[in-house]
Amino acid sequence: MLKSSETTTAIEVKNISKQFVLRHTRSIKEAIVWLLKGRKGDLSEKFHALRDVSVEIGQGEAVALLGLNGSGKSTLLKHISGVMLPDSGTIRTRGRVAGLIEVGAGFHHDLSGRDNVFLNGAILGMSEEDIREKFDSIVEFAEIGKFIDTEVRFYSSGMYLRLAFSVAVHTDPEVFLVDEILAVGDEPFQKKCISKIQDLAAEGKTLVVVSHDLDLVSRICQRGILLEGGNVTFDGPIEEAVATLRR
């Protein structure tokens, strides 16, 4: 967490790196030969998702993380959210961080929508009193209606989205993270989500968005950070970032 005196910086990512071990599926014959050779040679390889990445995002900025599949943008967002920890480097954030990294993350399939509102709200830092106060508004925004007392295992992906998004935005976060979540759900609700995100931006909240919808991020964000092969290759005005990616 950033010190309160550092009022202009909401997110500080400093020299972070992350690699994953990719296991390759081999035939039984290849595996036996590998074992007979005393396990010489590696049946896996390392994938560098992020390479010494440093980014600073100011309070109230709306920033898009852009890049092709496998560029590292979603991995970077998960590090900012705290879902992942870096192999090296540091990440610091200021204020409450909330968002949608995966649809229904934090939801328990065996619990009702009502119970999951309280569970997910608590995970995102809301007190029980806050959740009770905002409960009706959360349900109304999510358009769940009578299904609020149904186990979420029976929800469609769209219902998951609506409830997860509604809980997240009602936490009143200082930093809001969104990863391709607007690609799920019907068009009217997508527009509703976009409108809410624009409201958050207008209120001076810090937004970090990952999306392949370049027209959308051009409307919401002012700054674009372009990643390629785990490296930051561009950081500047969103129009230039989008133009660079489209080349």
Give an overview of the whole structure:
Helix content is 36%, strand content 28%. The chain has 247 residues and is an alpha/beta fold. It has one domain: Rossmann fold, CATH 3.40.50. The strands form two sheets. Strands 5-6-7-3-8-9 form a six-stranded mixed beta sheet, with helices on both faces. A three-stranded antiparallel beta sheet has the order 2-1-4. Helix 6 (187-202) links the parallel strand 6 (175-179) and strand 7 (206-210). The model has no long low-confidence stretch (mean pLDDT 85).
Q: Could you provide a short overview of the structure?
A:
The chain is built from 8 helices and 9 strands. The chain is α/β, with parallel strands linked by helices and 247 residues long.
Q: What would the keywords be for this entry?
A:
247 residues, alpha/beta, Rossmann fold, six-stranded mixed beta sheet, three-stranded antiparallel beta sheet, 8 helices, 9 strands, 36% helix, 28% strand, Bact_Polysacc_Export_ATP-bd, ABC transporter ATP-binding protein, ABC-type transporter activity, transport
Per-chain topology:
Blueprint: E1 9-23, H1 28-36, E2 44-58, E3 62-66, H2 73-81, E4 88-93, E5 97-100, H3 113-123, H4 128-142, H5 157-169, E6 175-179, H6 187-202, E7 206-210, H7 214-220, E8 223-228, E9 231-237, H8 238-246
Parallel strand pairs: 3-7, 3-8, 5-6, 6-7
Antiparallel strand pairs: 1-2, 1-4, 8-9
Q: What's the shape?
A: globular
Beta percentage is: 25-35%
Q: What is the CA-based Rg, rounded?
A: 20 Å
pLDDT averaged residue by residue: 85
Please outline the major beta sheet. Answer: 6 strands, mixed
CATH architecture: 3-Layer(aba) Sandwich
GO molecular function, one term: ABC-type transporter activity
Protein name: ABC transporter ATP-binding protein
Keywords: ATP-binding, Nucleotide-binding, Transport
InterPro entries: AAA+_ATPase (IPR003593), ABC_transporter-like_ATP-bd (IPR003439), ABC_transpr_TagH-like (IPR015860), Bact_Polysacc_Export_ATP-bd (IPR050683), P-loop_NTPase (IPR027417)
